[in-house]
Specification:
single chain; alpha/beta; Rossmann fold; four-stranded parallel β-sheet; 5 helices; 14% strand; globular
Length: 140
């Protein structure tokens, strides 16, 4: 199974999805990308390290970079968009690619105290964990 998490900037949500699904299904090929590349969000790295090791090969990349590396969108079995912008900007794909949209709040836009911001990042991480486990149990 080859899965792609797609978000706007590939800095938070899609990276979290990649890390979490890699851990849940190490036998699958899992990637993340953005329609743009905004760099890895340092708070995302903090909350992902809390839940286990973060792979050293994580980097923010675009769908075009992924395609140039031999992973065009149509080569994936599943495409999970995690924000409306990515869903709206994603090209039409062949029916062989299963597409789902999971609208998640952007933790990079969180505001408040350090504790409140961390809480919002943790909430997105935990929501993704729940969604992935449920998805694996019911759809795969």
């Amino acid at each position: 199974m080859k899965v792609l998490f797609l978000c706007t900037g590939n800095s938070c949500r899609s990276q979290m999805g990649e890390v979490l699904l890699r851990r849940l299904r190490p036998d699958w090929e899992v990637h993340s990308a953005g329609v743009e590349a905004h760099g890895l969000n340092p708070i995302m790295l903090v909350v992902m390290k809390e839940s286990g090791a973060v792979p050293t090969d994580l980097r923010s990349k675009t769908v075009d970079e992924l395609a140039a590396a031999g992973h065009p969108l149509e080569s994936f079995d599943v495409l999970l968009t995690l924000c409306g912008d990515a869903r709206d900007r994603c090209p039409v794909l062949p029916r062989t690619v299963w597409q789902e949209h999971w609208p998640l709040a952007d933790p990079a836009r969180a505001f408040g105290s350090e504790r409140e911001v961390l809480g919002q990042f943790r909430g997105v991480r935990d929501d993704l964990t729940y969604r992935l486990k449920h998805w694996l149990e019911t759809r795969i």
